[in-house]
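Handover notes (outgoing to incoming on-call)

Open items:
1. Myb/SANT-like domain-containing protein: sequence verified, structure written out, both below. Nothing else pending on this one.
2. Nothing else urgent.
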Amino acid sequence: MDSKGRRMSYSRVKSLVVTGWKCDNGFKNGYLAQLEAHMAKNFPHGDIRAEPHITSKLNVWKKHYSTLIIMMTKSGLDWDESRNMVTVEDDNAWDDYVKVVSDGPNDKGDAL
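Myb/SANT-like domain-containing protein structure tokens:
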């Protein structure tokens, strides 16, 4: 899926949240069919399916989001809204984070 497709699918996920498809434990049944129909409408020759295409991207997004949530609980790590990235206020905080989390970025310059 190219970047336009990713932006469009993320946009549709946001609209599903706003229109009530999101519940306490995730999304209501049928949300993948809604996403698949949206992608088919916008990419008629794309053959993007809920399984494996959309669920794969959502799983990657969930992993990255979880990593960011954990990072934001650590003292010395902050979120820079203007650059959309985590900033390190204290090198010791970063070192402590890397020791605890093995599946996140290991270098301050790594992308998620």
